[in-house]
Amino acid sequence: QLVESGGGLVQPGGSLRLSCAASGFTFSSYWMNWVRQAPGKGLEWVANIKQDGSDTHYADSVKGRFTISRDNADKSLYLQMNSLRAEDTAIYYCVRDLGYYRGDCWGQGTLVTVSS
Amino acid sequence: QSALTQPPSASGSPGQSVAISCTGTSSDVGGYNYVSWYQQHPGKAPKLMIYEVTKRPSGVPDRFSGSKSGNTASLTVSGLQAEDEADYYCNSFAGSDNLGVFGTGTKVTVL
């Protein structure tokens, strides 16, 4: 099970940190991802991180502003979001990856709204 | 990476079949056998329906099948049921240095 938290309303230029708590599986064995979905729009991979945290990838739209990280001891995934823009408004999902973007387990999502 | 191209909508009557296409390039769909399909009902998180082009996760009905030819992948839903009405997104691996890429999404309506 994956449970996201940390979403909310933030002003443009502000920061927010999302968390995802994992349970029921060996968290440290999987790549983990953040996927977002803007209101009424499609899905977008935002970032992912290797099992030991040694490799990460980001969408061009968030590169340099967002940082993905994980704490395997705490079974938690994080997304630090800085310099937020209106276009970052979306539901953010935490996703377990079985490999090659085979996302077999998704959280319920947390809504981030960037607005003044 | 640009989004993969899907038709905005598709429809069929109960019991009929509907096929959804997903067109990419040789850098994604055409280059790897790592195409997956996700189903999303309104207000819900996406659910994995097909992975590695043709494989179904445990619990997914065999009414759902996938295929690929060149740069285009397809999802076919046979024997349409009311609960199949949802949005469907394809996704492809696009190389080790890139994130995956989703399709634009297709809304399936059961008439």
Low-confidence stretches of chain A: none
Number of helices of chain A: 0
Radius of gyration of chain B: 13 Å
- For this structure, the quaternary state is heterodimer
Strand content of chain A: over 45%
What is the overall shape of chain B?
Answer: globular
Distance between the termini of chain B: 35 Å
Written as H for each helix and E for each strand, in order along the chain, the element string of chain B is EEEEEEEEE
The largest sheet of chain A, given as strand count, sense and whether it forms a barrel, is:
7 strands, mixed
Question: Main interface pair?
Answer: A-B, 21 and 26 residues
Order of helices and strands of chain A: EEEEEEEEEEE
Helix coverage percent of chain B: under 10%
Structural class of chain A: mainly beta
* Low-confidence residue ranges of chain B: none
Strand content of chain B: 35-45%
Cα end-to-end separation of chain A: 34 Å
Explain the layout of strands and helices:
The complex is a heterodimer of chains A (116) and B (111).
Chain A: E1 2-5, E2 8-10, E3 16-22, E4 31-37, E5 43-49, E6 56-58, E7 66-71, E8 76-81, E9 90-97, E10 103-106, E11 110-114
Parallel strand pairs in A: 2-11
Antiparallel strand pairs in A: 1-3, 3-8, 4-5, 4-9, 5-6, 7-8, 9-10, 9-11
Chain B: E1 9-12, E2 18-23, E3 35-40, E4 47-50, E5 64-69, E6 72-77, E7 86-92, E8 101-102, E9 106-110
Parallel strand pairs in B: 1-9
Antiparallel strand pairs in B: 2-6, 3-4, 3-7, 5-6, 7-8, 7-9
What does this structure look like?
The radius of gyration of chain A is 13 Å and the shape is globular. Helix content of chain A is 0%, strand content 52%. Chain A is an all-beta fold. The mean pLDDT of chain A is 97. In chain A, strands 2, 4, 5, 6, 9, 10 and 11 form a seven-stranded mixed β-sheet that branches. Chain A has a four-stranded antiparallel β-sheet with strand order 1-3-8-7, with no helix packed on it. Chain B has 111 residues and is mostly beta strands. At the A-B interface, strand 5 and strand 10 of A face strand 3, strand 7 and strand 8 of B.
